[in-house]
Amino acid sequence: MSVEVEVNENDLAEMVEQVWESYLDPEGINPLIPTYDENQPSEVHSSVSISGSWTGHIVYACSIEAARRAAAAFLAMEPDEVSQEDLSDVLGELANIVGGNVKAMLPPGAFLSLPQVVLAPESTARFPNTERISGVYGIWDGEPVSISMWHSRADNNQEDGA
Amino acid sequence: MRAMVIDDSRAMRMILKRIVTKLNFDAVEAGDGQEALDLLADMPEVPELALIDWNMPNMNGLEFVTNVRADPRLREMTLVMVTTESEQSQIVRALAAGAHEYVIKPFTEGAMIEKLALLGLVPTGANS
Q1: Which residues form the Chemotaxis phosphatase CheX-like domain (chain A) (predicted)?
Q2: CB-CB under 8 Å, B86 with A90
Q3: Looking at residue A47, which CATH number applies to its domain?
């Protein structure tokens, strides 16, 4: 059984800020600028699923260019040197880091999956029977990036699926 | 000195490798706990340090720590968990299993170096 839990935009924003400070913008010159636009486009996404005391998903979505720049920052290389493997690996790790920190805010007994990376827009992979409960939406170096949290409505599984 | 970096994410291995190389360690990489144990079995000299992720396929970090602690040949290795598992109960489990230190992702390079310095693993004159 899953319990209701509140991880709000501020909590997510704080985690995202730590990720930027640690890996994507250690100099503090290129932060993620909030847009608050839930419908901003994405071209690639990664996710981790949480099960147990809470069930849902953490999704990191962005443009290919933002993913390439993230991989370049992570791997200390030039953006044009980034391979598809680099891109997938870094996207997965970003979802894993945010997901792991979200899990720490959940009731004990939550489990984190290994990350999944899909080189397609987030909109192609909305998890069934979930609702968005929180998200950080922004522009990084002119490119869209979002981190959102989706709660599985497990208690509704027996309903008509509407 | 030699360090083993164990993480299923190549990106994270590269970040950790960069840090320990800066500290004058020779770095060896493994993608999971089992691969790390296999590499250790073939090494004539045991690395002084292992930086270990928790969630990995095949063998997770906690199982790796338990295996290392059960092997007298590997007793001298300093084990540092580097993971997103940040609940108090998980930290206690890892330390009880034999990890010496615990670093939560995301971490800055400075924070990692500080942690290794506390363990006496930052050589004098290293570029920290």
Answers
A1: 46-128
A2: no
A3: 3.40.1550.10
Which pLDDT band holds residue A107 (cuts at 50, 70, 90)? confident
Q: Does B58 touch chain A (CB under 8 A)?
A: no
Q: Which CATH number fits domain B2-118: 1.10.630.10, 3.40.50.2300, 3.90.198.10, 3.40.50.11310?
A: 3.40.50.2300
Number of domains in chain A: 1
- Look at residue A124 and tell me whether its pLDDT is greater than 80: no
pLDDT band at B124; cut points 50, 70, 90 = low
d(CA B127, CA A6): 43
Which helix H or strand E contains A143, and what residues bound it?
strand A143-152
Whether B11 sits inside 8 A of A89 (CB atoms) is yes
pLDDT at A90: 95
A83 touches chain B (CB under 8 A): no
Distance of CA B90 to the CA centre of its chain: 16
A26 in contact with B, Cβ within 8 Å? yes
Is A88 contained in some domain?
yes
How far, rounded to the nearest angstrom, does the alpha carbon of residue B13 sit from its chain's CA centroid? 10
Structure tokens belonging to residue A141: 């170096």
pLDDT tens, position by position, A11-56: 999 999 999 999 999 999 999 999 999 989 999 999 999 999 999 9
Measured distance between the N- and C-terminal CA atoms of chain B, rounded to whole angstroms: 16
A98 lies in some domain: yes
3-state class (DSSP) for residue B101: strand
In a domain, A103, yes or no: yes
Select from A21, A75, A114 the Cβ nearest to the Cβ of B55: A114
Q: In which band, very low, low, confident or very high, does the pLDDT at A91 lie, cut at 50, 70 and 90?
A: very high
